[in-house]
Design brief:
This is diguanylate cyclase. With 533 residues, this protein is an alpha+beta fold. The protein has helices at residues 9-74, 77-83, 90-94, 97-103, 144-155, 199-209, 261-307, 314-322, 326-353, 363-380, 394-401, 403-424, 445-462, 492-508; strands at 107-112, 117-123, 130-133, 161-166, 170-178, 189-196, 213-219, 227-231, 234-243, 250-259, 384-391, 427-430, 435-441, 477-483, 514-516, 525-526. The structure holds guanosine-5'-triphosphate.
């Protein structure tokens, strides 16, 4: 099937600007997807990472504080003497449930320099009671797993640091060798303190950081990259810290949950900007199309109508030709060309329908008028007379006076006939060399004959000398008249033929007379001129 695609300028502009709009919107969408959205997301991740950093720093600060507290106790002569058995009242003086609760310690473990348990004190996580033991058995069995890890740390020479231990729950552990206050001498043992990372600690951290925090124990080594999960208006991020675990690697996940307000606000703002940009582009293109329509396309259409000479209002032509732009120039040039063309056409028309010598209508125009008059008379059953006129003995005139003088004679006769035609309102043409034809619509035979006689008299009045004419010493004419009804075949040429026959009779009858065609020819009526010699 052949598709018809309109090629008008309006269509082309519409297609081009529409295409441009689609390209621009696609480009905007691509820029959003490939550049702006990733930037917004990276910015959001960056903000979340900064929050994770802050939480991690708080966590490290807690660890440093616990380590400082451990060192404070471990580098004290009293403690030094205690682990060597020289200060039996040490535990009574320094330990109590209140102290553990105030300092949020869960367990304090003293080891001698052989790494054996010397003294244990802590808050039982199940009962909440303060307990002291010398071995992690019986009532202090809950301490056993922690003590084992601590002894492993001493063996691995990792007992002078802060770390995270985990069993069922994660705990923060700080440990250091026990030294004299002046740090002299060799360590008398090791001191470990643990702080439970329980709900109470979490709420303390949440209050401190202003963020909701949760902890999770994960099997396997700590991942170096943070984990993010986005759902609706919230983002959950997790950072992993290593757990000291001698047998299987494990890690502690510190998770925070943040509102995506900033990201979502940016996103909404950006979407608004995108939407309004698209709307603005559509508006701009619509305005461009409107302006194009008003400034270029409509005037071009008018100009096209003007050049095709279609139905165009005069004021529109005026508007076009008064413009100061290219369309105005083109319109003025065309108008000049058109005027020139119309003049030429008129001249051509006159030349093609008029006789050059006399200026009278020629046979072509006569035939056209005859056709029109015939049809009109036929349709209205009106009357129509056709008169043929011929100069008598014009050959003799030419022969005697010469052809140029014959031309002058023809012109004078034509002028006289034309004047009368105008006065009596009928049409006359020069249809042959010295032959003329008149069309007389709505004219009765009598009136036609009357006009024929007036024409003959008008030529007589010219008194153009014709010394060789056997009729008169001046130029005369003969006329034959036929009515529409006279023609048997009822056609224009048949009427002319009847008039010609009547003219023939006028000539035959001696010339200088008007003959009215009658059926049969024998009964033709001859005008009074006939009586004159
Ligand atoms: N000067 C001049 N003569 C013309 C022109 N056209 C035709 N004629 C002459 O008109 C003459 C017509 O002659 P004919 O047809 O024999 O008729 P006639 O001599 O008028 O005789 P009848 O018509 O019988 O009275 C010819 O001699 C033509 O040369 C013209 O334009 N100028």
């Amino acid at each position: 099937m052949h598709l018809h695609i309109p090629r008008s300028l309006r269509f082309r502009f519409f297609a081009a600007l529409g295409g441009l709009l689609i390209c621009a919107i696609v480009a905007l969408a691509a820029i959003s997807a490939l550049v702006i959205f990733p930037v917004l997301q990276a910015e959001e991740r960056g903000a979340v990472k900064r929050e994770l950093d802050r939480v991690e720093r708080s966590f490290q600060l807690e660890q440093q504080q616990l380590l400082a507290q451990v060192r404070d106790w471990a580098h004290w002569d009293d403690t030094y003497q205690f682990v060597q058995g020289d200060y039996p009242r040490y535990k009574d003086v320094n330990f109590s449930q209140e102290m553990f609760e105030d300092m949020r310690y869960q367990l304090m473990a003293f080891f001698n320099k052989a790494g054996e348990v010397y003294f244990l004190a802590g808050i039982n996580p199940t009962t909440g009671n303060y307990q002291t033991c010398t071995t992690p058995n019986d009532e202090c069995a809950w301490m056993e797993s922690w003590v084992n890890r601590m002894q492993a740390a001493i063996e691995e020479d990792k007992a002078d640091q802060s770390a995270i231990y985990a069993d069922q729950e994660p705990v923060m552990v700080s440990s250091t060798p026990i030294l004299r206050t002046d740090r002299s001498g060799s360590p008398a043992g090791w001191l470990f303190k643990t702080r439970n990372l329980d709900d109470e600690w979490l709420s303390f951290m949440e209050e401190y950081t202003g963020l909701p925090i949760n902890l999770s124990l994960i099997q396997g080594a700590a991942s170096s990259s943070d984990a993010f999960s986005f759902s609706g208006n919230t983002v959950h991020a997790e950072r992993y810290l290593p757990i000291y675990s001698p047998l299987t690697p494990a890690s502690l996940g510190i998770g925070i949950e943040l509102n995506r307000t900033s990201y979502l606000t940016n996103l909404t703002t950006f979407r608004y900007v995108l939407l309004w940009t698209a709307v603005l582009m559509v508006l701009v293109i619509a305005v461009v199309l409107l302006l194009l329509e008003k400034i270029v396309l409509k005037p071009l259409r008018l100009l096209t109508q003007f050049t095709q000479q279609l139905d165009i209002h005069e004021t529109d032509v005026h508007k076009l030709t008064r413009r100061n732009d290219e369309i105005g120039l083109l319109s003025r040039a065309f108008q000049e060309h058109l005027t020139c063309q119309q003049q030429l056409n008129e001249e051509l028309l006159t030349l093609s329908t008029h006789d050059a010598l006399t200026g009278l209508p020629n046979r072509r125009l006569f035939d056209q008028r005859l056709e029109t008059a015939f049809n009109e008379a036929d349709a209205t059953s009106g009357s129509l007379a056709v008169m043929m006129l011929d100069i008598d003995h014009f050959k003799l005139y030419n022969d005697h006076y010469g052809h140029p003088e014959g031309d002058v004679c023809l012109q004078r006769i034509a002028d006289a006939m034309h004047s009368l035609a105008q006065t009596r309102d009928f049409f006359i043409a020069r249809t042959g060399g010295e032959e003329f034809c008149a069309l007389l619509p709505h004219t009765s035979p009598d009136k036609a004959r009357d006009i024929g006689e007036q024409l003959s008299a008008a030529i007589d009045d010219l008194q153009i000398p014709h010394s060789t004419s056997p009729v008169k010493p001046f130029v005369t004419i003969s006329a034959g008249i036929a009515m529409l009804q006279d023609a048997k075949s009822q056609s224009p040429s048949a009427v002319v033929s009847c008039a010609d026959q009547a003219l023939y009779l006028a000539k035959e009858a001696g010339r200088h007379q008007v003959v009215l065609f009658r059926q049969p020819l024998a009964s033709t009526e001859i005008s009074p001129h006939n009586t004159s010699p």
